[in-house]
């Protein structure tokens, strides 16, 4: 099978030629898609009529091991009874729209901050697949910022100064920025994780900034100075020339590389309009030697 990619943005994003991801199982096709991820960072697949099992199965074929440590599960039981499926929706367990003051909705508002999936865990998230199940008539875009292009645009002295720096990531921090109130038990269940500020894609060897609203501090710097540095870098990395905005259509599936991108939801009238997406993320594990099967990473 020959797979083609239509570029959607100068730096990040491509639409993949028509195919049914449920039927993509052969190693050659999966490797073509991984190579597309290496190049574009975000891949858009149209007309993917997937159920939860289809989405889980494809993510496993594509990258091996699923991430089942969602931040939201520290607050409330997952309504799908599977912690590998993140509920990116504005409905409750009965499918009713959440009220403005609903705790789930208040927690989810932080998805409008620039972030990187599961950076508050160790290991963090690698590839995320987001499946559009219910899309409102009004725009409810998701934006992606290319962290590779943002790194490349820094001058060499700045790049050198960032090498070796480590950053603590906490989902408690990103939610508290918006006034979300955690219990002591919830805070203790979400301790955060430390990751390099500059990361290298193990396949393409491209360097990128590794940023997120979850980033609390730079380990090697005073707290105030480190936070100012992180704020400056986020402002730099999210300039419009680095950002692709995806306008959702019914049955879209979008995959992105969390080593290459940050993303955020854009606001829409979620109190009156139903939107439901489901996300599956794989664990950022060391990539195997080309002679090894993908399952060797588990």
CATH top-level class: Alpha Beta
Q: How many alpha or pi helices?
A: 8
What is the C-alpha radius of gyration, as a whole number of Å?
18 Å
Low-pLDDT windows of residues = 289-298
**Major sheet size, sense and barrel closure:** 7 strands, mixed
| CATH homologous superfamily descriptor | Clavaminate synthase-like
Named CATH architecture: 4-Layer Sandwich
CATH topology value: Double-stranded beta-helix
- Topology as H/E string? EEHEHEHEEHHEHHEEEEHEEEE
Please count the beta strands (DSSP E, at least 2 residues each).
Answer: 15
Structural class: alpha+beta
TL;DR?
Helices cover 24% and strands 23% of the residues. It has helices at residues 27-40, 52-63, 103-108, 147-153, 156-162, 171-176, 184-189, 223-237; strands at residues 5-7, 14-16, 42-45, 86-89, 125-134, 142-146, 166-169, 193-196, 198-200, 207-209, 215-218, 243-246, 253-257, 261-265, 276-283.
